């Protein structure tokens, strides 16, 4: 049998292209494998070089008790070429400064970056790795918080401020979306005590971007303990996501002052009662200061800081006749109230062995005690009045009454709103009374009184004995009036913020520049 020769197989163009595609893929896979391998080798060398620098720096620190000071980020390869400050300090601790394989003096992205903070006590070195452009860094114990600007941090406000802390206001603490809300920040921070100026004039706040300056008013700063009580005007508070601001300090040359615009244009008056004598100052630009009358005790222990103490006889604060009160139609008030009282047997009230609560001085015939009030119209004075059975606010038939009396010898948060169609009383976090039918009319007319701590009637005192007293007995703190009807969420958030300010915020670690 004669065998036929094998016929040569002809490849189609499509098959040839397929084979070429497979070969190309294999070639590219091999290429990228070796290229990736080279990247890994270079990155491992970068990490090894950083560790060499780290060891040299620790040797330097052992002898000098600080690191070579470089106040701004420095490329160490460039510093070595110029025989700069780092090279001069380290030349006896390392044979040569390592150089990144891709180092380019004109565009030093790939180099070993170095910076110190806190007077050379802390340092950080970082290098950019080729793989996914990650940052590899080493640092001293607190140097991890040195600002790089490469790790997604918020922008730094100004390099003259050497320290900052992030302050978070959890969304759960906020009752509703709010704008221009004055947040009370309370801290007792050893970092502030060590690094801020003794008068606190370098303390400032920014928004979450780290850059936008916020209005603030410091009520108290103690440089010995780092205790800070400050009000910060936060442009917006959200209930959807956590809210963040930044606290900056550590600039010896700074002179930051309290800003009256911490309180928005709708505030008529804000009194912290922090004075120990003389006029009580309005924190807003309206100048609605108070003149103490009747021997009022100032500098008493308040809810937030200091308060004013009324003796239940003839003490009150005279606000005078201020134009900013005229023709006000809507209103919001807030105040912390600590009424003084105890169970005593008053001779005019004893029946058998029954004892009644007496508000303030023993033996005084008690009816009502005024917290604040002003003449508003022909119908009489608008007033916030408390007694042992109720708390009320309003004017005659336009009055809201809470049948839950204030807790004696305890701090009570009392707030109220007069809107176009509704009046609301808010006590200790709860809406206690609502009146729908509010007649819109000016709440304050010209040439009439405005007072804190007294009902509109004067006390009756004869031969040093108080027969009738309408003056408040106890301590008041943090009183404010607004010319608008604030939303209920504003009052609820104010209460939660001021009730226990230390738990209202969360403070992050100290960051260094």
Could you characterize the architecture of this molecule?
The chain is elongated, with a radius of gyration of 35 Å. The chain has helices at 13-64, 76-81, 85-90, 190-195, 488-499, 501-504, and strands at 74-75, 113-117, 122-128, 135-139, 163-169, 178-188, 204-206, 216-222, 227-237, 243-249, 267-271, 291-293, 297-301, 306-311, 316-318, 331-339, 341-344, 356-359, 365-377, 380-386, 391-395, 398-402, 412-418, 423-427, 430-435, 450-452, 460-462, 465-471, 473-482, 506-512. Strands 12, 15, 19, 20, 21, 22, 26, 27 and 28 form a nine-stranded mixed β-sheet that branches. Strands 11, 13, 14, 16, 23, 24, 25 and 29 form an eight-stranded antiparallel β-sheet that branches. With 513 residues, the chain is an alpha+beta fold. The longest helix has 52 residues, at 13-64. It has six helices and 30 strands. Strand 24 (423-427) and strand 25 (430-435) form a beta hairpin. The termini are far apart. The model is unreliable at 345-352, 354-358 and 361-365 (pLDDT under 50).
List the helices and strands and how they pair.
Elements lengths: L12 H52 L9 E2 H6 L3 H6 L22 E5 L4 E7 L6 E5 L23 E7 L8 E11 L1 H6 L8 E3 L9 E7 L4 E11 L5 E7 L17 E5 L19 E3 L3 E5 L4 E6 L4 E3 L12 E9 L1 E4 L11 E4 L5 E13 L2 E7 L4 E5 L2 E5 L9 E7 L4 E5 L2 E6 L14 E3 L7 E3 L2 E7 L1 E10 L5 H12 L1 H4 L1 E7 L1
Parallel strand pairs: 19-28
Antiparallel strand pairs: 1-2, 2-3, 3-4, 5-10, 5-30, 6-9, 7-10, 8-9, 11-29, 12-15, 13-14, 14-29, 15-26, 16-23, 16-29, 17-18, 19-20, 19-26, 20-21, 21-22, 23-24, 24-25, 27-28
């Amino acid at each position: 049998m004669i065998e036929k020769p094998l016929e040569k197989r002809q490849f189609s163009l499509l098959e040839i292209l397929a084979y070429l595609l497979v070969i190309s893929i294999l070639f590219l896979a091999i290429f990228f494998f070796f290229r990736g391998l080279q990247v890994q080798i270079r990155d491992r060398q970068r990490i090894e070089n950083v560790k060499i620098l780290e060891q040299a720096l620790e040797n330097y620190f052992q002898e000098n008790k600080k690191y070579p000071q470089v106040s701004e980020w420095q490329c160490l390869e460039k510093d070595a070429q110029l025989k700069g400050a780092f090279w001069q300090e380290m030349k006896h601790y390392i044979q040569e400064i390592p150089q990144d394989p891709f180092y380019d003096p004109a565009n030093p992205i790939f180099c070993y970056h170095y910076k110190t903070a806190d007077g050379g006590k802390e340092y950080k070195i970082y290098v950019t790795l080729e793989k996914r452009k990650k940052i590899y860094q080493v640092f001293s114990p607190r140097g991890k918080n040195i600002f790089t600007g490469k790790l997604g941090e918020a922008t730094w406000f100004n390099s003259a401020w050497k320290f900052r802390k992030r302050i978070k206001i959890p969304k759960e603490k906020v009752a509703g979306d709010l704008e221009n809300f004055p947040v009370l920040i309370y801290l007792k921070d050893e970092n502030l005590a060590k690094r801020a100026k003794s008068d606190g004039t370098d303390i400032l706040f920014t928004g979450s971007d780290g850059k936008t300056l916020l209005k603030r008013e410091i009520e108290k700063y103690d440089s010995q303990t780092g205790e800070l009580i400050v009000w910060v005007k936060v442009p917006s508070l959200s209930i959807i996501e956590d809210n963040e601001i930044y606290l900056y300090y550590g600039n010896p040359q700074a002179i930051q002052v309290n800003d009256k615009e911490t309180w928005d244009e709708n505030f008529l008056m804000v009194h912290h009662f922090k004075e120990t004598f003389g006029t009580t100052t309005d924190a807003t630009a309206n100048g609605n200061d108070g003149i103490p009358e009747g021997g009022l005790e100032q500098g008493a222990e308040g809810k937030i800081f200091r308060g004013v103490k009324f003796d239940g006889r003839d003490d009150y604060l005279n606000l005078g006749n201020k134009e900013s009160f005229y023709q006000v139609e809507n209103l919001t008030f807030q105040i912390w109230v600590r009424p003084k009282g105890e169970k005593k047997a008053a001779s005019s009230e004893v029946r058998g062995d029954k004892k009644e609560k007496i508000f303030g001085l023993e033996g005084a015939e008690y009816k009502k005690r005024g917290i604040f009030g002003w003449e508003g119209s022909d119908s009489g004075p608008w007033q916030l009045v408390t007694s042992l059975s109720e708390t009320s606010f309003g004017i005659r038939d336009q009055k809201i009454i809470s049948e839950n009396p204030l807790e004696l010898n305890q701090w009570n948060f009392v707030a109220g709103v007069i809107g176009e169609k509704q009046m609301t009383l808010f006590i200790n976090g709860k809406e206690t009374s609502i009146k729908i039918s509010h007649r819109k009319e000016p709440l304050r007319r010209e040439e009439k009184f405005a007072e804190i701590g007294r009902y509109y009637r004067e006390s009756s005192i004869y031969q040093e004995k108080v027969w009738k007293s309408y003056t408040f007995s106890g301590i008041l703190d943090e009183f404010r009036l607004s010319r608008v009807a604030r939303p209920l969420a504003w009052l609820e958030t104010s209460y939660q913020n001021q009730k226990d300010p230390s738990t209202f915020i969360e403070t992050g670690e100290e960051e260094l520049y």
